[in-house]
Amino acid sequence: MKDHLIRTFVWTARDNQDPDKFVFSQKDSRKALARSLICDEQTPSDVQREKFRIFMSLACPSFRIPSCSTVNRDCYELFEEEKTKLKNILCNKRVSLSVDAWTSEQETTYLCVKAHFLDSNWKLQKNVLEFCPLSDHSAEAIGKAVEKCLLDWGIDKIFAITVEDSQSNDVAIHNLKTRFSNSENSLLGGKYLHLRYIDNVIKLMASDSLQEIGESVAHIREMVRSIVLSPARLIKFKECVELEKIDNKRMLCMDVHTNWISTFFMLDTAQKLQKAFEKFQESDPYCKSETMGAGMPNRDDWQKVKWFIEILRHLYGLTLHLSCSRHVTTNTIFARLFEVHHLLSEWQDSTEMGISSMARRLREKYTNYWGKYKEMNLVIYLALILDPRYKLEILESLPSELHLTPEMGEIAREAAFTLFDEYKRLYVPEKSSSSEKEPESGARSFPSDFKKYLIQKRREEALAAFADGKSDLERYLDEPTEQDWDYFDVLGWWKGNNHRFPILSNMAHDLLVVPVSRAALESKFSRAGYIRDSFSGKGSKMLQVLLSTKSWLLPSHSSSCVEDDVQNLEEAERI
């Protein structure tokens, strides 16, 4: 059992207690134990382990170790308690949902529904609402599961639902859109309700890049395979690495053809060991005959890989950014994709053999992915506008570089004002009733409480802003863009300026949290494999209890650092 389980249990039970005044409670201790088991991904059977029993007999002799069934019951009670708390938080709050399927090693398909929203402190929260078995991937099954989840949680204010790009998902969300479009809480009849994960676009971009150098990749792949699968050759290759004095901590790894990230790892590592490969080829004349006819990598192969590894590095960085960040990412997708476009633009002017033509072909393919703007959900462009560093500047001034239609800036502007008018309808401050008396001219009341004074001052500033006849959005766009690029906190900015833009801040509050990636899902649940072994016979309810409750007990903004998430994702993708 992990030491963290014991530490969490002991200190949770005695948190903020004076040791001299500590009064033991079996009930509180059992609750703390259930919390520890869930947060540390342990199972009820762990409390029956001999070492844990010995430790507890010494640390707290009064504590009676509960049975597995009792621990299960305690976990259920904690689940219901935390669910009630979350329901109260989500009451009358507009959220965005991410819906995706996850298949376990037992080939059981589960549907995961997560809510994405901002708490009262403008901190991003991502909580699992539903984790249930799915009979099939049909539109009917998906639609019913999502609708059942929404009814159970009492959620009727939804900004967007992000799903995988598939026909069954399209039909399911269309049906839900029809279901909620007539609701008074619907935004523009559900115009932005259906959003597709960007992961598929990233995967297509990476696959196209690898396809352009497919022959070179095959040469290196077979060379790596012939070395890794032979212990004798692997030893000899390590000697070549030492002879060439290459300082590289990562050794060779084989890739999975269908997983572009694993191919990126393989090529990235191999490219850094190029001199060792060349040395090895000279020392092993039999290696060439065992590369399954793919041929040995030559200098031209290495040069192509060196160029294209930079595209894959950008796409991999984008994947990590989208999947591991504890912050909103919808507003930054456009800027990161621009880095790839800019790289290809430079390559088009290259004098290297074949690089210019390949860059041109890739750029044409990338344009096709983003060119059908009339069919796109404009959320990522609206989020870009609501980032004070960008606003409309990129969309209006750089259409040719980004291969956007020249009208994109105007299209995004019109969409922003249309959505703002909808929020104005929902959140415009009510006018004072005739029964409320206006203060006499020159008179002003000063609340004794300083906090109330600040609130009143900000309200007066907001009301004064309306006097110029301009809306929140017009005044926001008129102001200069922010220049703090390195450490800018977009949510912190809106939190600090919500009194200046009372309606627009509500729009930013809902729009910026829309999820755009599913990349973290499988790595998240693959690390919960302990459940598969310990609860496979206890039904799907315990799966939901453990996975949901953990996401509630460990808020997304404090559960782990980005570096840990990156490491976990890399490990998951290497498997």
TrEMBL record:
SUPFAM superfamilies noted in UniProt: Ribonuclease H-like (SSF53098)
Alphabetically ordered keywords of this record: DNA-binding
Domain hAT-like transposase RNase-H fold: 325-423
InterPro entries cross-referenced by the UniProt entry: hAT-like_transposase_RNase-H (IPR025525), HATC_C_dom (IPR008906), RNaseH-like_sf (IPR012337), ZnF_BED_domain_contain (IPR052035)
A GO molecular function held by the record: DNA binding
Pfam families assigned to the protein according to its UniProt record, in alphabetical order: Dimer_Tnp_hAT, hAT-like_RNase-H
Highest taxon above the source species: Eukaryota
Domain HAT C-terminal dimerisation per the UniProt entry, residue ranges: 472-553
PANTHER family: ZINC FINGER BED DOMAIN-CONTAINING PROTEIN 4, ZINC FINGER BED DOMAIN-CONTAINING PROTEIN RICESLEEPER 2-LIKE
Protein name: Zinc finger BED domain-containing protein RICESLEEPER 2-like
Species for this entry: Coffea arabica
